[in-house]
Amino acid sequence: MLNITNEYVSSRSIILSMETDKRRQWNLKRVCVRLVDCRKTSEMVDSSECLLLIGRSLSSGEAEQHLDNEKQCISNAKLFKKQCRQSGEKPYHCLDCGSNFMTSKELKVHQQIHTGENPYGCDQCGKRFTQSRYLVTHQRIHTEEKPYGCDQCGKRFTQSRYLVTHQRIHTGEKPYGCDQCGKTFAWSGNLVTHQRIHTGEKPYHCLDCGRNFMTSNELKIHQRTHTGDKCYSCDQCGKRFAQSGNLVVHKRIHTGEKLYGCDQCGKRFAQSGSLVVHKRIHTGEKLYGCDQCGKRFAHSGNLVVHKRIHTGEKPYGCDQCGKRFAQSGSLVEHRRIHTGYKPYGCDQCENRFGCSGHLAKHKKIHTGEKPYHCLDCGSNFMTSNELKVHYWKHTGEKPYGCDECGKKFSRLGTLVAHKRIHTGEKPYGCDQCGKKFAWSGHLVVHKRIHTGEKPYGCDQCGKTFSVSGHLVSHKRIHTAEKT
Questions:
Q1: What would the mean pLDDT of 185-210 be, rounded to a whole number?
Q2: Number of helices followed by number of strands (H, E) in the chain
Q3: What pTM was estimated for this model as a whole?
Q4: Which SUPFAM superfamilies match (predicted)?
């Protein structure tokens, strides 16, 4: 006889007393013992009786049939689950790996890991799942159903947990803190990734090139550099992207949408990262420092480009003339010399320019604006670079030296042009006759032979010239100046 007055019935004692085979031991534990409310009965029961049917004796045949029955008794199921939650007991044991579970359903789902069973299949794509709820969630990809909506901004989600984490954007809640540096995060996954900065851990490995990455998404994106795969395409212009986020941002070019606004000056941006970087103008924050000279920058990209001054690296080369550049944007602008493409037009006159900086500088001719002021002599300049070069007249500084002949220059561009004397390089070619020149200015003057353009006019007699130097020489006729 078993006394179950003051303690839970031990499944082990019942299993041993019944002397059944392993399967029946398991069913006895599963069907009978789990549903006994041991604290509410004081009866003495025989071990051959069903503990759910106290007071009702079973014949040996009935007991055997009951023990072989795999259906769950449910009369006291809720009570038993409540007891398990309160006590923390996990009476369901996986014989394969030893894991314990609170309910038989949890155990059943877990055992599908060992069996590989995925009983729930999607009729759209065939993907299979261990639980029906995972299938329901997955099918929302096909139906585009998003039942969970944010009451702040209206954004909708396929799963409630995504809504919960999204709402932290509005509340500012960041419950996950780094124990190394104190930085906090809205999402636990971001904390895990962040902590790898401290540990240096990069668990995701590219089998093609051997590079390691901190996140699986970084690896996935990187692998597209090997495959050339660009899965996401713009339905407006057809441009393709390797990342869906890049496509979302790109589409704002077509819509003009700028979601992110600066609370200091009101300027708006299409990308959140651009807003973050912009705010450093107001705060003066410069996070990125050069380990060679100590110069600091607000943008990591500017630091990367700056370091090329020290290394001499010029990774971007022109396929027309071979000239190389430290920045990709400089190469893009340079190529327009060869193509003649001038996308930037002045709204005051008909002049057009190959780069936006030249247009901005040109517009100051119309406005007369010279915002850069020399404290030494009072001269004003249209650009900060003009002022910088001007200062060197006062200091006598010529920071750019030719490594061939030692001649020094106050302007980098002048040094670059000078070096062509030594190399014989003539990168600028006339598209009319093919004649080549070492300097772009010489090409501009030469083209006037073909066009007949003579932009320099004498204010004394009206005679015009194609070269400014010729006008200067001509004016000496009027002034009787002799050379």
A1: 88
A2: 18, 30
A3: 0.35
A4: beta-beta-alpha zinc fingers (SSF57667)
